[in-house]
Amino acid sequence: MLKSLCDLLIIGGGPAGLAAAIAAKEAGVEDLLIVEREDYLGGILNQCIHDGFGLEIFKESLTGPEYAAKFFSKVKKLRIPVMTKTMVISMNQTKEVILSSKNRLLQLRAKAIILAMGCRERTGAAVGIPGPRPAGIYTAGVAQNLINIRNIMIGKRVLILGSGDIGLIMARSLTLEGARVLAVVEILPYPSGLPRNIVQCLEDFNIPLFLSHTVVNIEGDGRVDSVAIARVGSRGGIVPGTKQRISCDTLLLSVGLIPENELSRQAGVILDEKTLGPVVDENGETNIPGVFACGNVLQVHDLVDYATIEARRVGESAASYLMGRRKRGRRIRTQFGHGLRYLLPQWISDQNDVILSMRVSSPGKDKTLLIKDGKRLIKEVFYRSVNPAEMLRVRLKREDLYGIDGFKVTIK
Amino acid sequence: MTKRFLCIICPNSCLIEVDYTQRGVRRIGGSLCKKGDDYVQKELFFPTRVLTSSLRVTNGELPLVSVKTNQPIPKAKIMEIMKILRQTTASAPIKIGDILIKSVAQTGADIVATKGIKGGTS
Ligand SMILES: Cc1cc2nc3c(=O)[nH]c(=O)nc-3n(C[C@H](O)[C@H](O)[C@H](O)COP(=O)(O)OP(=O)(O)OC[C@H]3O[C@@H](n4cnc5c(N)ncnc54)[C@H](O)[C@@H]3O)c2cc1C
Ligand code: SF4
Asked: Cβ(A135)–Cβ(A223) under 8 Å?
């Protein structure tokens, strides 16, 4: 096996990996490498041909490929080495990885690693649905790839389970391409995608959204020919007498994303049971010194701009780590309580400004976010409207953190 | 007539209720700022969207090129433009930003490539 060394290895060439690499290079890291398993850089953005990317960073609404292209040219200009069609197949605690490329294996030892592997789609919900498993069942992301990259149409009459953003985007895209989207079915009493997508992907095309409903049966011999849906009661059970059959040839699953952390787990990176991504500090550093994480592998982002901002900071932190410029502070645990589903980072020092990111547990109006160290109020933020589909971000200044022992974030 | 709109301009997500006739808005309430009122006006009387889709490609390394309208088009024209896109092919190589159809369906908006496609086989 070929052996090699490098200072900084970036695993994954999506928007997070690219932004991290650019920031690290600009901060002075010379010996770095981006490894991407697909033929092209850009990650999920390549198949997200709709617009709505970049509003935060570039102040204009770009399509996924256009957003990605801005980073490709930067990577080229900075001469950052890239290996595509190369997959990292293993990683250990000493930052040794094995790359598989064109049937060749390469062992590489890095001084620092940035995890930027993105996420994969959940399929679990489908496993529990009774009935045979005919053809015609796809996850929304796979369908998006087939339609937008490979020019393969997946069906004519489509039902979508789950109101996550990918499902909503696909409802519009399938309708535009000539299919009939019969309904989007969501088990929760509120949609899980962004309001913008509810309006522009469903309402624009009169596609019904069934809230508090789920798929209870799939029928079909060879190919899906109908799907049964029913109302879900407040305790989670099916409400008797509400079952209805919808005839369709395709079922799309859009039931959520899971950070892709096989490699992290293998290497002994500690994962958070809520985010399913690594436990990190404000620099994005995991429990293994010199191993960092950013983008969807850390937490599932709804806006790519925030994934990019997070990744830049991680790239800079990796550079400081490599150059021994890091200030070591205290380790303070962050905690969350009422009203929140998760909080990142899990650890902070008192050496830097910190950006907290979190999601609320359910939608609400007129809420106040409180950050408290015991009785002492560190910060308070008012929101007119909160929604689990939209990540909340709060900046804490270094001064805010002087002398605290920890803090807890709640929303009321 | 009254109608309710969820304002999608910012995360405040105001629910705006509007009372209107064909000639204009009679009363509008629920917004926190003027941007919301403007949004509702526009949605009521002249809704527009940026349309994104793909065109088939000949002689390219990939079978499709992603495209968009370079300015918003009337919502009512979406399906008409989709039909034109289905009947059009583009020939590689294509550069990002290339105009592939000029003033599609007389809207004044051009169809432009949102990614580059190298020449190849397909
Ligand atoms: C359908 C959809 C619609 C979206 N719409 C919007 C929108 O309208 N606006 C917006 O701002 N954001 C949107 N987003 C969110 C945005 O696209 C993501 O936040 C962003 O792509 C996350 O970037 P990433 O680099 O973390 O992950 P990814 O883009 O998933 O990139 C990860 C990369 O890592 C590679 N990889 C994984 N494992 C390995 C390995 N072992 N070895 C080598 N390479 C590996 C993958 O191939 C991939 O290229 C959307 C996301 C989706 C899925
Ligand atoms: S009305 Fe103004 S504050 Fe309310 S959602 Fe629209 S833009 Fe935001």
From this structure: yes
Per-residue tokens: B82: 């989709």
pLDDT digits (tens, 9 = 90+) for A120-139: 998 866 667 777 778 999 99
Nearest-CB residue to B6 (from A150, A176, A199): A199
Tokens of A240: 């008797």
Going from the N-terminus, what domains does chain A have, and what CATH number goes with each? 1-121+256-326 (3.50.50.60), 123-255 (3.50.50.60), 329-412 (2.60.40)
Q: What percentage of chain A reaches a pLDDT higher than 90?
A: 85
Which of A71, A80, A141 is closest to A307 using CA atoms?
A: A71
At position B43, the amino acid (one-letter code) is E
- Whether ligand 2 lies within 6 angstroms of the CB of B40 is answered as no
Domain extents in chain B = 2-46, 52-113
- More confidently predicted of A175 and A352: A175
In chain B, which ranges are E strands? 2-6, 15-21, 24-29, 48-49, 52-58, 64-69, 73-74, 89-91, 99-101, 111-113
A66, A149, A200 ranked by CB distance to B49: nearest: A200
B66 touches chain A (CB under 8 A): yes
Task: Using DSSP bridges, classify how beta strands A2-11 and A32-35 pair: parallel, antiparallel or unpaired.
Answer: parallel
Contacts of A151 in chain B (CB under 8 A): 54, 56, 63-64
Cβ of B71 less than 6 Å from ligand 2 = no
Q: What's the CA gap between A55 and A391, in Å, rounded?
A: 15
pLDDT tens profile B59-109? 999 999 999 999 999 999 999 999 999 999 999 999 999 999 999 999 999
Mean pLDDT value across residues A394-404: 90
pLDDT of B22 higher than 90: no
d(CA A187, CA A341): 18
Contact A309, A16 (CB under 8 A): no
Rounded distance, CA A37 to CA A99, Å? 10
The CATH code belonging to domain B52-113 is 3.10.530.10
- Protein residue with its CA nearest to atom 1 in ligand 2: B36
- Residue B78: CB atoms within 10 A of its CB come to 21
Contacts of residue A198 in chain B, CB cutoff 8 Å? 6
Q: Check if B72 contacts A (Cβ < 8 Å).
A: no
B11 alpha carbon to ligand 2 midpoint, in Å? 8
